[in-house]
Amino acid sequence: MLDDGTEALADEHTESARILVVDDEKVIRDILAEFLTMEGFVVRSVEDGERALTELRIRPYDMVISDLKMPGISGLELLEALGRENLSVVTVIMTGFGTVETAIEAMKKGAYDYILKPFKVEEVIHIVKRGLEKQRLQTENVKLREALTLYRVSEAIANTVDLDRILDVILRAALDEVDADVASLHLKDPKTGRYEERVKAVSELSRPIRDSKLPSPDVEELISHFERGSSILAHGIKANRFFTSPSGDRPLVSYAAVPLQIAARVIGMLNVYSFTRGKKFDEGKRKTLSILASRAATSIENARLYDDLVSKNEALSEANRSLEENFKQTIVGFAQALEESDVYTRGHSERVAMYAELIARGLRLPDGEVKAIIQAGLMHDIGKIGIRHDMLNKPGKLSPDEIQQFREHPEKGKRILEPIPCMRHLVDAAWCHHEGFDGAGYPRGLEKQGIPLMGRIIAIADAYDAMTSDRAYRRALPHEMAIGEIERCSGTQFDPEIAELFLYQIEQFRKEATRKGRLELVPP
Questions:
Q1: Closest listed residue to residue 509, CA positions, set 457, 456, 461
Q2: Which of 109, 5, 17 has its CA nearest to residue 61?
Q3: Suppose 90 and one of 131, 153, 230, 452 were both cysteines; which one would form an S-S bond, judging by CB atoms 3.0 to 4.6 Å apart?
Q4: What's domain 160-314's architecture?
Q5: For the domain bounded by 320-521, which CATH number is listed?
Q6: Sign of the C-alpha dihedral, residues 417, 418, 423, 429?
Q7: How far apart are the first and last CA of the chain?
Q8: What SS3 state is found at 304?
């Protein structure tokens, strides 16, 4: 069970690092909880490994400090379980039986560090802060790399439906993202059922790798793994089971493979190889490869659809609409992926689309324009792809340079959407939702009716959701305070007629949602 007093801490330090202390000795738990809490951390404690696993499955934690010897699940067994369940958390092991062998075993199983009992509190605090800083840097690096990958692939999709070009971009991105020596794609030909392999080698290794024989993946074995929901990460001779023939004169050091899937249908696989001594792929790189593969599958399907349309020339107009819809869904997927990686912006665009629809229907716009307004709400922040994650969620005041970078996202959104014919009608949402009715907005300083209607609608929907949602720099504002702000800024920041309509529509929406018991749809 959780120790008394730790539950209340969560509400007071929601932005602090969360630490779980696991020890069967209550006095140890209490000492660590007291001192770590004094340092500003959110601390919970449990008395054994089984309760720790339950707690970690329920809530996210940044660090676990666990005793080595405990009844039931030991500290080392807890480490193994964290790895099996992909529970990403920095782990520190405590032991009164400290030996070099113990430390090595803990590190092998994924521990960041270990503490010998009896310990000095200041040493524990030092290890905790050092581990959390390492985790922060790794997390920021992964998120930045993911954002850049999404941006690069989105540009490829926006500018071409040439399959060879798309595959080249995907392979190069795979090499860069996981620091591989070789990346390959195996694609299933829809007509023959055969898998075609495309290989891309890092430039400085291309000659020796090209001159030696690459291992041949056992495609059927790998596809069976993918269909059971598993991807592949293996090292050295353990990877040989996934190949029909071993590599030539360059021993394989590490191998990872993930499926290319459309819904539940596997259309191929993306593989990366390391032949460099000491360079092994880890779980983080496998996850990055999976993210890339999920985006790649849709773009490959789009290119194949386009090629099929050109070659068959059957029902071209209807198929073009299908292709355009795939493009739209792909770009919307990028915007949602950017939000899903961040607890503070998750669901923001969907809510903006919902509030914008209330305004559009209140204006009695035609159904086609209402649909466009909904799409505009989903896409209004697409320009934030590529902006550093730590800047978007900075808890303090932004510097002048950071403000300037943030204010570039409407222009970036325009540049992303404008080259895509079927998305061009949404440019005004991305470009104009920060313009002010009095001319004091950005990026162009438009005013009054000079601001496109779509921009004026999204501006109010965006502001309301931003105010009523938790952000890194403040808690969500109550509904009454948010509508008070919209009233106050009517005629300056917002179009007064649209602001008045929104205030009426949102009250009607809240009443209806409350009547139906859909309280999750209405901010308190």
A1: 461
A2: 17
A3: 131
A4: 2-Layer Sandwich (3.30)
A5: 1.10.3210.10
A6: positive
A7: 32
A8: helix
Query: Which pLDDT does position 323 carry in this prediction?
Result: 45
CB 441 within 8 A of CB 463: no
Q: Which of 150, 222, 141, 228 is nearest to 186 (CA)?
A: 222
* Number of other residues whose CB lies within 10 A of the CB of residue 482: 20
Please tell me the predicted confidence (pLDDT) of residue 320.
Answer: 47
Residue where the block lists tokens 């509190």: 121
- Could you give the CA distance from residue 174 to residue 257 in angstroms, rounded to a whole number? 11
CB of 226 within 8 A of CB of 266? yes
Q: Phi and psi dihedrals of 145, rounded to 5?
A: -65, -40
d(CA 255, CA 483): 55
Rounded distance, CA 57 to CA 46, Å? 14
Topology (CATH level 3) of domain 9-119: Rossmann fold (3.40.50)
* Per-domain residue ranges of the chain: 9-119, 160-314, 320-521
> How far is residue 330's CA from residue 176's CA, in Å, rounded to a whole number?
22
Q: How far apart are CA 423 and CA 416, in angstroms?
A: 9
Alpha helices in 279-384 (DSSP H): 283-312, 316-340, 348-362, 367-379
Structure tokens at 264: 């539940």
Measured between alpha carbons, how far is 287 from 327 in angstroms, rounded to an integer? 24
DSSP 223-286: HHHHHTT--EEEEGGGGGGGEEE--SSS---EEEEEEEEETTEEEEEEEEEE-STT----HHHH
Q: Could you give the CA distance from residue 66 to residue 49 in angstroms, rounded to a whole number?
A: 8
Residue 139, amino acid = T
| Tokens 């859909």, residue located | 518
**DSSP code of residue 490:** B
The answer on pLDDT for 196 being more than 60 is yes
Neighbours of 503 (CB within 10 A): 16
| Among 452, 433, 450, residue whose Cα is nearest residue 442 | 433
d(CA 352, CA 458): 7
Question: Crossing angle, helix 367-379 and helix 316-340, to 10 degrees?
Answer: 40
Q: Is 358 helix (H, G, I), strand (E, B) or coil?
A: helix
Over the stretch 313-337, which tens digit does the pLDDT of each residue have? 444 445 445 545 555 555 555 555 5
Mean pLDDT of all residues belonging to the chain: 79
Q: Would residue 491 be called left, alpha or beta, if left means φ above 0 and alpha means ψ between -120 and 50 degrees?
A: left
Q: Is the pTM of this model over 0.70?
A: no
Are 415 and 427 within 8 A, CB to CB?
A: no
Q: What are the percentages of helix, strand and coil residues in the chain, rounded to 5?
A: 55, 15, 30
Q: Pairing between strand 232-235 and 254-262?
A: antiparallel
